[in-house]
Amino acid sequence: MSFDRKIKIAPSILSADFADFGREIRAVEDQGADWVHVDVMDGHFVPNITFGPPAVAAFRKHVSTVMDVHLMIAPVDPYIDAFAKAGADIITAHVEAGPHIHRTLQAIRGAGARAGVALNPGTPAEAVEHLLDLADLVCVMTVNPGFGGQKFIDMTDKVRRLRAMIGDRPVHIEIDGGVDPTTAPRLAEAGADVLVAGSAVFRGGSVSNSAPYGENIRAIRAAAEAALA
Ligand code: DX5
Ligand code: ZN
């Protein structure tokens, strides 16, 4: 996994058919996804439950790009090794999920994965200021985490501040929540390079009719890249 700031589209399989993850993952990759975003929820840190390490290990067999695992769980530390063993390329933990995010990021890298740190909409950019040398990715939530298909909360100013704070460091800025062709341009322009999208990728398609996934991915990418031109 080499570092670049090109726009990357990361479909969230939270919007996929939960009875058919293998084919859904292969369908979005065939249709141009750069990464596959996996949302892990515990019914405690967020008010929804999705899947744990055995399911993530099963997804891994179908991912040929980058498996980006977003942990919305508290505590995080007891599960890091299990998600690393499940094959996560990137493991992202929330600043708000515990008192020791610095230690958590060290543990993620220690387990052999890239380390991501996520910020809820109410958390300022400055919360990661002293973590940037320990992180490979900062995830800016543009919804309150827990569900797909929520209304976008504009965090463009936060992205701009983060981009300035990151400077030359090889740290991705990822946006998660309500990304579509109308919201992507301002985020790309502010410095985001990874755009997670659930409902805006999976809408209109299915595993047996996956062309709409490709149209949706291309529409988000084109809108973001146009803002950089
Ligand atoms: C929200 C998840 C997101 C979600 C995004 O808690 O972290 O990854 O799937 O879904 P959309 O793109 O539909 O807002
Ligand atoms: Zn997510």
UniProtKB/TrEMBL annotation:
Keyword Metal-binding in record: yes
Keyword annotations from UniProtKB, A to Z: Carbohydrate metabolism, Cobalt, Isomerase, Manganese, Metal-binding, Zinc
Location of the active site: 39, 176
Xref: CDD domains: RPE
Superkingdom classification of source: Bacteria
Binding annotation for substrate: 12, 70, 146-149, 176-178, 198-199
Gene Ontology, cellular component aspect: cytoplasm
Protein name (database record): Ribulose-phosphate 3-epimerase
Organism: Paracoccus salipaludis
Gene name in the database record: rpe
